[in-house]
Design goal:
Largest sheet: 3 strands, antiparallel
Shape: elongated
Distance between the termini: 12 Å
Strand content: 25-35%
Strand order of the largest sheet: 3-2-4
């Protein structure tokens, strides 16, 4: 595992090795970049997931006040940013 410093992340973005769009320098930490969670989650309705069967899901909009995650559920989320790297 190779951890990048803020300077290495910035350099990789400038060289095109890492893409983060939109990029906000204020979200850059000492060795990380803080992605922002989109305001929608997808939750599987079934307790047991059988990938051989169609899986029913439910979409949840996260209100401004926030949303309480419950244990034992699988939440699928996405970020507001688009990221990519070949490395």
């Amino acid at each position: 595992i190779h951890m990048l410093t803020a300077q290495a992340i910035t350099s990789a973005i400038e060289q095109g090795d890492i893409i983060i769009k939109p990029f906000n320098p204020e979200r850059l930490g000492p060795n990380s970049y803080d992605l922002a969670l989109h305001n929608e989650l997808v939750v599987y309705k079934a307790q047991v997931l059988d990938m051989m069967q169609p899986l029913e899901t439910e979409r949840i909009s996260i209100p401004e006040a926030g949303y309480l995650l419950h244990p034992g559920k699988i939440y699928l989320g996405r970020t507001q940013e688009w990221t990519a790297t070949d490395r």
